[in-house]
């Protein structure tokens, strides 16, 4: 027998990574790379952080697992207190799972159960409205909400397809309008869709505050989230913010919705929550929702073996303590400004950079074949893959993506270093990025 890992791709063989330290990764040949995208916006505290390693190791020495149907653990109780301390006011309940997709499905199920408990078993409120050009996970349940077009096509016969509206994509507006004279047609589409379906059938609207992986950090106009909140309130629909990528300090705020002073009913989190030290995810729930269940049936009819896992709890509590003690969110904000300034210089000079966009330490770069017409590169040219390769050769890891709007595929990537990066490290990232993109544009244009 010759056991092998079924790889994500048989076409390329990824190097074996053996060590991490701060923003650096080291492979088995001793080559060092800057982790310019924190894995996939996970390793918010960088690699090898002693405080988190000690907290998880100490927890392993106490109790490694206790089944959530029978026990609570101190680690998970502490994690809930820490998470709620950085969440918007009035969201004090945290349901812990093992990753983002599980957390999204928990949010969707909770929204349905909330209305059943509140209005009775005959309620028809169940559908969740989502958005195109979004990503909420790769399970069958989450892919019905969103997903990369290529993956969706393959698996779509399996989905429970959610109704969808367009995402805010000002660079390629789906309504062919221009901000601000557009009056935010993209946000107003939510109300139209609710009215078409009938609010009595809709339980929730789900969206990423800044769209992450599909189209590269699509950042909404200032009015977008307040408008969405108002519509959800008016039609009695829960607002679920998928902060799997944007949460836990990534955008220079505790949670991304804080930028617009909007409080969702459920925040979905994962990735940065335990910063990659242990698989973790969770939903942070408005008190009124949790208390409707408490005063009704008395239980959330849902569960996984790893709910409230003590190792995840210990890592999460340690990550949030670390963020507060070391002013990580403030650093993300300050270094984010430095990164933004550097990216804007690259945008002004590199002929294939169409747009840079983002907040804090979450930035997307959209690549185009023609800046005047915004025409994307033909897909076979593999522009984002080439940019990624050129950066990797210069020891910088970026996160490539490809979006699709109205049948047109594009190229983009995310640049999102650990939130503990220093000014000197940001400058080094920008230097390598500029060189990598110069080399790629010379080959592509
Ligand atoms: N939601 C968003 C916004 C994500 O970016 C991701 C993962 O990239 C997920 C959900 C799914 O998380 P996971 O891969 O942990 O299942």
UniProtKB/TrEMBL annotation:
Keyword RNA-binding: no
InterPro entries: Aminotrans_3 (IPR005814), Aminotrans_3_PPA_site (IPR049704), PyrdxlP-dep_Trfase (IPR015424), PyrdxlP-dep_Trfase_major (IPR015421), PyrdxlP-dep_Trfase_small (IPR015422)
Pfam family, one: Aminotran_3
PROSITE patterns: AA_TRANSFER_CLASS_3
GO molecular function terms listed in the Swiss-Prot or TrEMBL record: pyridoxal phosphate binding; transaminase activity
UniProt entry keywords in alphabetical sequence: Aminotransferase, Pyridoxal phosphate, Transferase
Organism domain of life: Bacteria
UniProt record similarity statement: Belongs to the class-III pyridoxal-phosphate-dependent aminotransferase family.
NCBIfam families tied to this protein: PRK07483.1
Identification of the protein by name: Aspartate aminotransferase family protein
């Amino acid at each position: 027998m010759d056991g092998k890992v079924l790889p994500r791709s048989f076409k390329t063989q990824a190097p074996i990574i053996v060590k991490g330290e701060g923003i650096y990764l080291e492979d088995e040949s001793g080559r060092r790379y800057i982790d310019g995208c924190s894995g996939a916006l996970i390793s918010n505290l960088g690699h090898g952080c002693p405080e988190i390693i000690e907290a998880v190791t100490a927890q392993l020495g106490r109790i490694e697992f206790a089944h959530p149907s029978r026990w609570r653990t101190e680690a998970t109780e502490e994690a809930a207190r820490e998470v709620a301390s950085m969440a918007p006011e009035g969201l004090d309940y945290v349901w812990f799972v093992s990753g983002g997709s599980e957390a999204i499905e928990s949010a969707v199920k909770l929204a349905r159960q909330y209305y059943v408990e509140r209005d009775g078993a005959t309620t028809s409120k169940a559908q969740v409205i989502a958005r195109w050009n979004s990503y909420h996970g790769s399970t069958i349940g989450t892919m019905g909400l969103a997903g990369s077009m290529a993956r969706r096509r393959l698996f779509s016969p399996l989905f429970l397809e959610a109704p969808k509206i367009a995402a805010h994509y000002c660079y390629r507006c789906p309504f062919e309008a221009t901000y601000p004279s557009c009056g935010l047609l993209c946000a107003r589409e939510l109300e139209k869709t609710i009215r078409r379906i009938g609010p009595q059938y809709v339980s929730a609207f789900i969206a990423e505050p800044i769209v992450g992986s599909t189209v590269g950090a699509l950042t909404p106009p200032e009015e977008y989230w307040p408008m969405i909140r108002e519509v959800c309130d008016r039609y009695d629909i829960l607002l679920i913010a998928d902060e799997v990528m944007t949460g836990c300090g990534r955008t220079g705020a505790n949670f991304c919705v804080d930028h617009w002073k909007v409080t969702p009913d459920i925040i979905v989190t994962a990735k940065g929550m335990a910063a990659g030290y242990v698989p973790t995810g969770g939903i942070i729930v408005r008190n009124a929702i949790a208390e409707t269940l408490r005063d009704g049936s008395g239980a959330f009819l849902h569960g996984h073996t790893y709910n409230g896992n003590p190792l995840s709890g210990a890592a999460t509590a340690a990550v949030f303590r670390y963020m507060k003690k070391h002013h990580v969110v403030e650093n993300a904000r300050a270094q984010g400004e430095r990164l933004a300034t550097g990216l804007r210089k690259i945008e002004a000079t590199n002929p294939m950079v169409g747009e840079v966009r983002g907040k804090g330490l979450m930035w997307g770069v959209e690549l185009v074949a023609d800046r005047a017409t915004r025409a994307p590169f033909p897909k076979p040219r593999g522009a984002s893959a080439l940019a990624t390769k050129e950066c990797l050769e210069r020891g910088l890891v970026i996160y490539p993506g490809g979006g699709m709007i109205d049948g047109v595929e594009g190229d983009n990537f995310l640049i999102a270093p650990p939130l503990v990066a220093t000014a000197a490290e940001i400058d080094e990232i920008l230097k390598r990025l500029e060189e990598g993109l110069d080399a790629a544009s010379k080959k592509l244009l």
